[in-house]
Batch of 4 targets.
Target 1
Amino acid sequence: MQSIRRSFVTERSKIGYIRFTIESYDGMALVTTIDPQKAIIELKISPGCEGMVLELVEALRRDEGLKIMEVT
């Protein structure tokens, strides 16, 4: 199985925090900055972890007030 890739746009100043938070859940996902100027990040989600990672992204939006929107 291959990783699932999802792209998001956020605030530039929050990229490090998002990376640290998501990658602290060992093995669930990796965060890569695609475009630092536009603050586009890509999550490479391990197979079977998509639901948990998307719940985490939603919690960061809701509980931390982060602006994270999926790029379609």
Note: Residues 50-64 form the longest helix (15 residues).
Target 2
Amino acid sequence: LSGVNLGAQFNDAVVVGRYAYIAQQGARFRIVDISNPLSPKIVSTLGMETNISSIAVSGNYAYLGMFTSTSRALIVVDISNP
């Protein structure tokens, strides 16, 4: 039906309700409002220090799995107000 240009590839995406949560190359976490399939809109972008490899969403929180060759991290993001 339509699309939104994210500008780079993504590693993971999760859809919950009216939002798509996207782990994007270039260390970005994006939230896209997909309530109108004909006109999806990026509503939030959060820059990270390293690429996000996976996303899980539960309630008001997104859990972002991140890793580099030397470290691993879990970042918790409050998504109650995208």
Note: The beta strands are 10-16, 19-24, 28-33, 41-47, 52-58, 61-67, 72-78.
Target 3
Amino acid sequence: MVEIIVNGEKKSLQKDSNVKEMIDALGYENSSFAVAINGTFVSIKEYEKRYIKAGDTIDILAPMVGG
């Protein structure tokens, strides 16, 4: 088990996962959003290369509409 914090809530992943696998496991696969790990933005091109580590803090941010 890999324990992480996602949007301020403790979550567990079944195995070491890259960002794409984490997004799929958390049910975000069809949404528009940005991902930051430990305060650093992760580009979509890096989702399959960047692996989640135990203790990482992940922010999944949806775009805001309006002004």
Note: The helical segments are 19-26.
Target 4
Amino acid sequence: EIALNDARKAASMFQNPDINISVLGVIENMSWFTPTRHPDEKYFIFGTGGGLKLAEECKVKLLGQIPLVSEVGEAAEKGKNVFNQNDNIVIDAFEKIASELVS
């Protein structure tokens, strides 16, 4: 709920008639954790449904969900993007989001 409240404030600011910047959609970060050794398992550490709830409140689409993967942060610290990783689950998530934005 704390993260949702922060995102609500941001969306509210952009949707303010005086600012009027379009919100294209919601991207839910750290949606679940999947251990490398158990790729078929998902652990919803921070709960589920927050991104969809916010998207519905803002009347926009849920563009995608990004899993919690330590390699993402490690790559960012080295100046690398998500496509320079070995974990296809993250790459797939970002490609789905890009596809949703383009469509």
Note: The mean pLDDT is 91.
